[in-house]
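Quick question, first post here. What does this chain look like in 3D?
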Amino acid sequence: QVQLVESGGGLVQPGGSLRLSCAASGTIFGIRDMNWYRQAPGKQRELVAAISSGGYSNYAEFVEGRFTISRDNAKNTVYLQMNTLKPEDTAVYYCNADVQDTIAPRWKYYWGQGTQVTVSS
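> Answer (accepted):
Ran it through. Tokens below.
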């Protein structure tokens, strides 16, 4: 079985920084793209950043150069470094990844349970 677990969320003041982590564990054969999404109260879930297995990344326009996505393939982990945080960044942040389980040999997207990020003074 495959699990994704996020960590690193919390309360931060505007202009502050947080680093989110998402570790995949279980009977993993391989991982292709890994992504970060977020969902604020009353809003749709939206893509924040994505990174391919080769390390190519892309970002939503609202990131405006403030965030960096990275991954450590040896640890099956994806990170999101968030700088210059704004109140409108407040949301639950979720990771997801395209993973092949060795027990069920097919590619499938898995989701983490989310980590709360609150930006407030």
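The radius of gyration is 14 Å.
The first strand starts at residue 2 and ends at 7.
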